[in-house]
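User: Hi! I have a protein structure encoded as tokens and I'd like to know what sequence might fold into it. I'm fairly new to this, so please keep things simple.
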């Protein structure tokens, strides 16, 4: 679905990612890991078309930008959102409406499906402002899901959540991957969840990169080192 070939990114002439190549296939669940400043968000911007590479190419196959749903970092989200849960989720359909001014039956069905999958259909009448952090993230995830036909991109979806709510968040992302066949590209600082749920790992290191199956990552030097630093050895099977 996505072919990244020898891609490099820079800010004001300073290269932050160089010569990165990887392919994402339909149904993959890719977790992007690496230290702060290693270029994870830059790569996400590149895939969303918000930043152009200085070298190399990013090509989509069998999809285009309109098929991508995006959930930004939770810290960037505020409560000044459309009033109800239902409206917030439905607003994810805006990019599929074309010139229509009102939501139609299909928009409403898609919103309902997303709310059911995220277990928030019962609270659809509540206002966004009165929800807990975990519930808000579910709403935003359902909203992103409404606009994602093929690929869901998430930048640290559980950053502001407590451990229980983050674990639920990662489980929900896995459910989207399994039940809807939507490909996942997720930045995560939580290596346990990366190891538990992802099919592939993209590790952006300062001097080298790793891209491949999770099972191979666990056995690689770069993977062993990283997982050891984060104290996740006991999760490695
Ligand atoms: P990560 O998401 O892994 O923390 P980023 O992609 O945010 O990494 O950043 C990679 C590098 O690019 C860092 O050194 C950061 O300081 C630099 N950088 C990110 N955004 C900008 C920007 N808008 N202008 C200049 N440098 C930036």
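Assistant: Happy to help. Inverse folding works backwards from shape to sequence: for each of the 237 positions I chose a residue that suits the local structure. Here it is:
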């Amino acid at each position: 679905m996505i072919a990244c070939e020898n891609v490099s990114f820079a800010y004001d002439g300073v290269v932050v990612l160089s010569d990165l190549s990887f392919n994402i296939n339909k149904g993959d669940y890719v977790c992007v890991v690496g230290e702060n400043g290693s270029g994870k968000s830059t790569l996400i911007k590149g895939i969303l078309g918000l930043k152009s590479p200085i070298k190399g190419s990013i090509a989509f196959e069998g999809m285009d930008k309109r098929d991508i749903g995006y959930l930004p970092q939770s810290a960037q989200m505020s409560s000044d959102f459309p009033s109800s849960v239902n409206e917030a989720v439905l607003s994810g359909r805006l990019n599929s409406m074309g010139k229509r001014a009102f939501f139609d039956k299909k928009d409403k069905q898609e919103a309902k499906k997303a709310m059911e999958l995220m277990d928030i259909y019962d609270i659809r009448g509540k206002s966004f402002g009165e929800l807990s952090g975990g519930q808000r993230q579910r709403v935003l995830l359902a909203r992103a899901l409404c606009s994602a036909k093929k690929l869901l991109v998430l930048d640290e979806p559980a950053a502001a959540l407590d451990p229980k709510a983050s674990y639920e968040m990662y489980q929900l992302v896995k459910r989207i991957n399994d039940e809807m066949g939507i490909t996942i590209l997720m930045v995560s600082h939580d290596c346990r969840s990366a190891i538990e749920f992802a099919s592939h790992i993209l590790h952006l290191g300062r001097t080298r990169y790793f891209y491949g199956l999770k099972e191979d990552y666990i056995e690689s030097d770069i993977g062993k080192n990283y997982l050891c630093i984060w104290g996740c050895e006991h999760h490695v099977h």
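A useful reference point when you look it over: The chain has eight helices and nine strands. Feel free to ask if any position seems puzzling.
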